[in-house]
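Trying the structure run again after the queue cleared.
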Amino acid sequence: MYANAGHIYPLVWSPPKDGAQLLEPEGSPPPEPIYLKVRGVPLGILPNWNAVAGRLSLNSGDIFLLTSDGITEATIVHASLDNQPNKSHAMLQQTGLWQLLLQQQGSLDLGKLLAQVQACNPIQEDDQTILSLEVL
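Done. Tokens:
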């Protein structure tokens, strides 16, 4: 059972058993995480707060990832499609976070993930918190 008080959606996924990269062979669609989309009003806004609860069973090997909005709202740089020096800046968002996770090989490395997020952000504008739980 879980509750979300207005934060971004937590992610749950099952990594490959052999520790390989999450990306599928070329031409195959990449796997998608489960986004825990049950969400309530942010905590502290209403005088009487009641949470809407969701349910999810986790299995051995599943990874549960919580991040603050300082991660998904961080600015990243996209190279232009024609490899020219033109680059666009955009917020990472949850889909961009998942793309970074797909690129990791082996076990989840939160330090590496945070370094990737911060690479384009010399000034941290918001808290950047990442918490993961791997079910044994």
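The longest strand covers residues 63-67. Worth checking whether this holds up in the mutant runs.
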